[in-house]
Amino acid sequence: MIGIVLVSHTPSLAQATAEFIAACAPDVPVALAGGNRSGGFGASYGKVVEALRSFDLVGGDSAERAPLPDASVPSRTVDGVILIPDLGSSALTSRMVLADRPDPRCVVVDCPFVEGAFEAAVQAQAGTCLPEIVESLRSVRSLRKL
């Protein structure tokens, strides 16, 4: 199973998106990194780190994990994690975290926030592997609604 980290500038957007995707993919573990450290608007390096640590990556060191209090799904063992940022600085923050803690099982993907989260969750629920989900999310970037 692949886990998802929703990296948003606001806790409420991350929470609402997690609730939306849980309706279609209830078994997919999701962690939230919404808002700054005090819960206000912004992106938080520490929240992204905590979100990643809330997962027990297969073959990873679970001793380094710390619970994430606002995770919408309990921590679980996952094969990989996809980080989906909402705007520019959350994408930069996500990339900084992964640059400081490189792990090929963790990937930040440039895709629309809600549509990407939905696509990733549905694919993860179906048991799709990390590289295939990442490729699928790249195609969502050009998805038109009308």
Structure description:
This protein has 146 residues and is an alpha/beta fold. 41% of the residues lie in helices and 17% in strands. The chain has helices at 11-24, 45-53, 88-100, 113-125, 130-140; strands at 2-8, 30-34, 56-57, 77-78, 80-85, 106-108. α1 links the parallel β1 and β2. α1 (11-24) packs parallel to α4 and α4 (113-125) runs antiparallel to α5. The N and C termini lie far apart (32 Å).
Sheet with most strands = 4 strands, parallel
Q: How far do the termini sit from each other?
A: 32 Å
Count of discrete alpha- or pi-helical segments spanning 4 or more residues: 5
Strand order of the largest sheet: 2-1-5-6
Number of strands: 6
Q: Secondary-structure element order, as H and E? A: EHEHEEEHEHH
Shape: globular
Proportion of residues in extended strands: 15-25%
Mean pLDDT: 88
The low-pLDDT segments are 61-75
User: Into which percent range does the helicity of residues fall?
Assistant: 40-55%
Briefly note the structural class of the backbone.
alpha/beta
Please state the CA-atom Rg, rounded to the nearest Å. 14 Å
